[in-house]
User: Fold this.
Amino acid sequence: MIETLARVARVIDEYTVVLNKGSADGVQRNDKFLIYGVGEDVIDPDTGESLGALEMVRGTVRVEHLQERVCTVRSNQTIKIPGRKRTIERKPGGSLSLALAMGTAAREEIEYDGSVEDKELEKPAVGDYARPY
Assistant:
């Protein structure tokens, strides 16, 4: 198990980052991490005391490539892109405009399948933290 928190050492793209921990630190392929930055200190409005720094969550990732001292991780979250609907007017016979005017045209809705895409990490930066998830 990792003794200290991992840190983002390099940002490859909006989905992929490199962490400064690897197999020598106990990281294994398919391990999951929560990537986060450290935001401003939060002050309790009642007592005025510090409640600690706010963690700015960038996303969750899974180890895809493992080396001795580093690992490459990629977003393991997805977003669903909704499908589309198309309405088709069908006439029972004769003129479509007449069928529409008389209310005898049939409407058929066809739904096209949506898709699933990888979710981008929220502005990952070198120095962000990663903890096992």
User: Anything to note?
Assistant: The longest strand covers residues 50-66. Residues 2 and 27 are 7 Å apart (CA to CA).
